[in-house]
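QA checklist item 7 of 12: single-chain prediction sanity check.
[x] sequence parsed
[x] length recorded as 321
[x] structure emitted
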Amino acid sequence: MALLLREDDVRTLLPMSDAIAITRDALRSTRPDNDNLPRRRLRLRDGVLNVMAASVPHLGAAGLKAYAAAGGSLSFVALLWDVETGRLQAILEADGLGRLRTGAATGVATDLLAIPRASTLGLIGSGRQAETQLEAVAAIRPLRSIRVFSRGPESRNDFARRMSSRLGIDVVPVETAEEAVRGMEIVVTVTTAREPVIQGAWLEEGAHVNAAGSNRADRREVDTDTVTRASVVAVDSITQAHQEAGDLIQPVHRGVLEWDRVLELGTLLRGEESGREDEQQLTLYKSLGIAVEDVAAARFVYQRAVEQGVGEETTFGAPLG
């Protein structure tokens, strides 16, 4: 028997505070038997199927997430297996799961790299991913000022009203990306942009940037100046960054960044590398989203669902014989 968990179940069972803790633990792990398969993109007739998988034996779990974007629609699913028995434990609708763990990784990076007193945030993007990005940073730092810019005035105005009400913090829509970024101590970009949406010249000394959107080699959200100004450049997976982090791949190709300067969040969490050394340094986190994070989050949701009697049991995946 496997447990079927819907989007509403996932959101109820996985509050942001838990998502951040789970993601921090997943990224900190150094166990050699962990296995993370970077995202693979398979072409559809008019779109793409994305597949990513991981085995995390110390959590007793393995799983995959797959999502298809085609014909103007998106659909997400995650599967969770027990590593000892090979039994399929859960089938999860995974749109919310992905947004939560992406936001949570930004929360972890912000906690590691933003100055401790940071309380101002500039956000570029007002789509569905932007909600959990803002929610995560607000859980990590006591935000008092938030500005948001996106290309659609109606979208950014609606986002500002909705998130102001949800967080109890004034979220102000602004008319340019530069206005959103200048003077802010934390900056988040969460777009599908092909070309940079922020310029390094706009960033104040001591700012921390989370580039959480575009995850393809031919796309980037931050310009080369942002990357070269950064004293610390971090990712969640170096291996995946070589394939997907256009924000870093393009500066490497231009000879202004070397891969040995790029750190993984895990090494910072374990104290193997040093992060920010003073409040004047600029820091950058390029988010990719890795399957280990998905599996850790799915396992937590499954265990909590079992404890609370949530979900629908299905015979799909029942052992043969």
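[x] summary fact logged: Residues 303 and 309 are 10 Å apart (CA to CA).
[ ] second reviewer sign-off
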